[in-house]
Protein 1
Amino acid sequence: MQAEQIFEILNGNPAFYLATVDGDEPHVRGMLLYKADKSGIIFHTGPFKDLYKQIMKNPKVEMCFFDNEKNIQVRVRGKLELVEDDKLKEEISNHPSRAFLQGMKAGKTQEEFFKMLSVFRLKNGKANIWTFKTNLGPKEDIDL
């Protein structure tokens, strides 16, 4: 499978699980992808959340996506970077899939709102594909 095919799966199945570490304790939670392409895998959270603090201490993560129709699991591991890009934050906050952010935006200046929106990108990740057919075979890293 090629990187472009993986990005199609990720974008078509934007709900994913994100694994982080806090000290020696693992933490996994459901997340919502903003987009995935050759520039990276992008999602957002708030700087007031435990997730943000965990990433800032240790940016190495693993993401797990699942395409229920094709029965394909895609796991991507790599290092996250905090993206300080007001244009991207504006794009995200105005995207139809992010209507839930409008309540956070209400009554705030753009600057105040942007301080509440932390965008992360995973670039140059390593993906593994899992299916029932390949379950017992060796894992193959796919560069993203």
Note: The CA atoms of residues 126 and 143 lie 5 Å apart.
Protein 2
Amino acid sequence: MSRFQYEKQSHKPSGLLLSAAVFLAVTIFFVQGLSSLSDSTRRRQKESLENAITRSVTYCYAVEGTYPENLDYLKRNYGLAYDEEAFFVDYRVVGSNVLPDITIIEKGD
């Protein structure tokens, strides 16, 4: 009958500590990965917005012969859309035949 006897195994504290350390390390790497992915996505969104505004401004100039006076004009007439809660766009007109000064700033969380 000794063959089927249950022997109680004791857990070593170092084994639990090692498991907790590995779990903590995996969690930290996961959170860093998500943060890096979020930063990368935000950069791509900003680049995409820059390209969209440049295309819209250039297209407006090609069609109408003057650059738009403000962003609202581009939104109404050329379908420009972006997340205004994530980005601030500073659009400054220099003249009707001079490319506007466009600055895109990411808003904080």
Note: The chain has a mean pLDDT of 84.
Protein 3
Amino acid sequence: MSTDLNNLSLKELKELQSKVAKAIASYEERQKKDAIAQLEEKAREMGFSLAELTGTQVGTKRKRSVSAPKYANPADPTETWTGRGRKPNWMIEALKAGKSPDDLLI
């Protein structure tokens, strides 16, 4: 397959880029599944399960717990922050204005 990229419009290039990204992700996912299947087979040959050997359940992702909001914007109480991650702009501005974090607690 040979495509002259110089003759494509910006829209066509972006569509092609999207298709390539999806194809790469799909390829990598297939490779991972194949690797896991091979490892599971080898573990079975040795009398174990892959989960036993790794101490994890294969194919499951660890779920993050959702944190409850800890701070609220006094000007707009619908804007909240858990205290984790980057400080929101309203929190930075309130601290610059002389408020303490305790003043912004919910």
Note: Residues 71-104 form one domain.
